[in-house]
């Protein structure tokens, strides 16, 4: 179920990144927001999977 959230974040971030070139007034803000959303779409699965697997391997940090 979370894969749908990650895909929405990734595709939405790409869309905002592309749409930022059509708005000259605040394009920089949209570009930065798109980059941050894409970073969140990549970082969330990595971080959450590490926390989920932490309990299965107690000796591994």
From TrEMBL:
UniProt keyword annotation of Transmembrane present: yes
What parts of the sequence cross the membrane?
A: 28-48
| Annotated keywords | Membrane, Transmembrane, Transmembrane helix
Q: What is this protein called?
A: Uncharacterized protein
Organism, by scientific name, is Microbacterium invictum
């Amino acid at each position: 179920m979370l894969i749908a959230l990650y895909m929405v974040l990734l595709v939405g971030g790409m869309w905002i990144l592309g749409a930022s070139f059509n708005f000259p007034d605040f394009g920089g803000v949209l570009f930065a927001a798109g980059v941050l959303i894409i970073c969140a779409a990549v970082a969330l699965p990595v971080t959450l999977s590490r926390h989920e697997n932490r309990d299965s391997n107690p000796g591994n940090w």
